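User: Please fill in residues for this 258-position structure.
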C-alpha cells in the first residue's frame, strides 16, 4: 500500500521527531512531498529527503525537478539554477526548453550544450537560485519514497561540504549522532555546522559534552549558548570537518513505518 503524506510549504514528510502520531504511516512504502519556495533574488540550500520512486531510489537532477518546475530560458542567468558543491568547487546547472540540464558555470560551458544529469546522493544538499529579473516566487515540489533505511551514512571530509540529515524528518541539532566528530575547547579546531537563520549565517561548534554551541565570534562561543535549532526536513547545511570520517545516523521513525 502506498500513502501520500502531503506537506505545507517546508513542512516535514513524516513530522518532527517526537511529534509523530502512531497512525501517521501504515506502510514502509510511503510517498512524501516536500515544497520549497524561492523568491526573486533569493537562493536556498536544500536537500532531497526522499528517494526517487524509480531508478532503484537514485535521485538525479531530472528525477528531482522534472522538466517543467524550473524557469527555463536561452540565457542561463535568466533560468533557475541548481548549484552543487563538487568537492573543491561549485558547479551550476540550468534547464533549457527541452527539459534537459546543462552545465552553466560559464557562457562557454552553457554554449557547448552537453546534456548532463548528476546523481544527488541522500545526505547531500544543493543551492537553488531564482532566475535573474523575475518578480514572482517559484514553489518547487520534491516527491518520492520516504527513506525507510534503518541507517544511513554521510561521508565527511576535511573542510567545507554541503550536507543534510539523511532521513525524511526534521531533527534537533543536539539530537544528531556525534560519534566520530571532532570537539575542541577552541571552536576553530572543532567540527562546525553553519545554518541560515534570522537572515544571517549562524555557526555552531561541537564541545566536549557532545553539544553544539553558537560560535559566530569568540565572545558568543564563551557564552555557551546551546543550539536550539531544528533542521527542517529537506534543509541543507554546511559542515566544516576537521578530519575525514563517516557521519552515521539511525532511522528514528522506523517503528511507524512497520
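Assistant: Residues filled in for all 258 positions:
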Amino acid at each position: 500500500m502506498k500513502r501520500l503524506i502531503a506537506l505545507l510549504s517546508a513542512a516535514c514528510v513524516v513530522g518532527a521527531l517526537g511529534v509523530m502520531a502512531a497512525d501517521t504511516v501504515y506502510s514502509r512504502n510511503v510517498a512524501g512531498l516536500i515544497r520549497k519556495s524561492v523568491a526573486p533574488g533569493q537562493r536556498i540550500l536544500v536537500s532531497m529527503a526522499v528517494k526517487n520512486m524509480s531508478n532503484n531510489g537514485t535521485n538525479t537532477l531530472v528525477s528531482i525537478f522534472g522538466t517543467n518546475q524550473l524557469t527555463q530560458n536561452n540565457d542561463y542567468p535568466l533560468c533557475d539554477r541548481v548549484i552543487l558543491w563538487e568537492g573543491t568547487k561549485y558547479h551550476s546547472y540550468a534547464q533549457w526548453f527541452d527539459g534537459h540540464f546543462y552545465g552553466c558555470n560559464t557562457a562557454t560551458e552553457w554554449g557547448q550544450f552537453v546534456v548532463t544529469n548528476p546523481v544527488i546522493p541522500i545526505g547531500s544538499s544543493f543551492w537553488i537560485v531564482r532566475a535573474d529579473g523575475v518578480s514572482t516566487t517559484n514553489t518547487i515540489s520534491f516527491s518520492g519514497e520516504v527513506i525507510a533505511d534503518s541507517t544511513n551514512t554521510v561521508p565527511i571530509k576535511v573542510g567545507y561540504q554541503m550536507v543534510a540529515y539523511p532521513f525524511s524528518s526534521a531533527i534537533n541539532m543536539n539530537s544528531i549522532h556525534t560519534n566520530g566528530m571532532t570537539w575542541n575547547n577552541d571552536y576553530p579546531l572543532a567540527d562546525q555546522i553553519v545554518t541560515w537563520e534570522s537572515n544571517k549565517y549562524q555557526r555552531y561548534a561541537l564541545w566536549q559534552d557532545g553539544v553544539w554551541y553558537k560560535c559566530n565570534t569568540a565572545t558568543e562561543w564563551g557564552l555557551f549558548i546551546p543550539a536550539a535549532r531544528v533542521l527542517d526536513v529537506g534543509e541543507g547545511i554546511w559542515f566544516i570537518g576537521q578530519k575525514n570520517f563517516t557521519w552515521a545516523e539511525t532511522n528514528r521513525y522506523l517503528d511507524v513505518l512497520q
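For context: Residues 107-112 form the longest helix (6 residues).
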